[in-house]
Amino acid sequence: MKITVTDQAGEVHELEGLEGWRVMEVIRDWGLNIKAECGGACACATCHVYVDPEWLDAVGAANDDEDDMLDTVGDVKSNSRLSCQILCSDDLDGLKLTLAPSAAKD
Amino acid sequence: MTTEITTDVVVIGAGPCGLFAAFELGLLDIKCHFIDILDRAGGQCAELYPEKPIYDIPGFPVVTGQQLTDNLMAQIAPFSPEFHFSRMVNSIEKQEDGSFKLTTDADEVFNTKVVVIAAGGGSFQPKRPPVADIEQFENKSVFYAVRKMEDFRGQDVVIVGGGDSALDWTLALESVARTITLVHRRDAFKAAPASVNKMKELVAEGKVNFQLGQIAKLEGENGQLNHVHLATDAGDLSIPATRLLPFFGLTMKLGPVADWGLELNDNTIVVDTEKFQTSVPGIFAIGDINWYPGKLKLILSGFHESALMAQAAKAVISPGERVVFQYTTSSTKLQKKLGVA
Description:
Number of strands of chain B: 20
Largest sheet of chain A: 5 strands, mixed
Oligomer: heterodimer
Number of strands of chain A: 5
Radius of gyration of chain B: 24 Å
Order of helices and strands of chain B: EHEHEEHEEEEEEHEHEEEEEEEEEHH
Shape of chain A: globular
Strand content of chain B: 25-35%
Distance between the termini of chain B: 43 Å
Strand content of chain A: 15-25%
Number of helices of chain A: 3
Helix content of chain A: 10-25%
Strand order of the largest sheet of chain A: 2-1-5-3-4
């Protein structure tokens, strides 16, 4: 499956996603500008992404824990998700995301 | 008044790897002092996921971050390490005799033969909201903590966040500030229910303003804030503000470590894999903060690194002394040190 990620500088990257991986892990392993501090425990909100509107239904909504973590960043939009809470699957082949400013490394 | 402490080893960071280093050093009769920016031991484990299960610690099919911390604290108790919490190491200077002088932001000086950096992802520091030019207002009219309530007397205070810190300071500063506005992106709070109820009472009484939205822009001159602009569902909203308190929790930054003259690789410290020593002899780095070819950021890697570091640190602290490698299962000497024989 493919994931298209626009980074904070506006550069577009097409990444190869692996079934069952967290989208955060794919973005991190490709070396994009994502801090992913807690390693996928939904405990830091440093893998914050904006989901392309056409993919919102397929990705689904954040759960309560994720919503609580999104409170800890200042750039939340209606299409905000934590990429560690999105699992790669064939249903998400072609997923388009944009990295939020708050996900950037120092 | 400056406090001066002399010791064999200072461990910077009291996370799991740092704590286990105290055990390995203790077996070699080496005394540790810990310095940590947090107010308790445990590092990222205790701060970010105290209740979340960890599944890859050998011998523990599942353990939470807090349980692991508690067990490590019990394990190192026989060696009585000393903890210095809520402070940050500002500088490390190598002395002529090869030892190191560390200074902290709590006006302390540590004279030590060895420094072990076990600072994980760096030091925990307040999250800065992604707002343009916020740096120019910091420590003048934007603060990430309240040191003295008097600094907020008669001010137009805007507090941003929905957790305990935001709610607690909204309640505490309500009687001190000229106006107080709590801003949160949604009408649900992660704070103690009693605090939320009290805040809602104050809002109903007109003593606290509550605004749904997110901080979008700061307005002011020479670091002095006069308005905060919010992004709300109804569009841009400008509110008078002379003090801003964003409470978005903590994040990890490399911090002053970057200025200590150590060889770095992408915000991590380069070490060798024999001693886990940095580019400065006598300064070691273990756990998530170090880098070497093949590095895996796992707690178990940090434990392994602690053991090898301790052997090398012993050679620095007691040069020429022969160290006989012993097992805790069979060595009565080690068992006596642990208080079990």
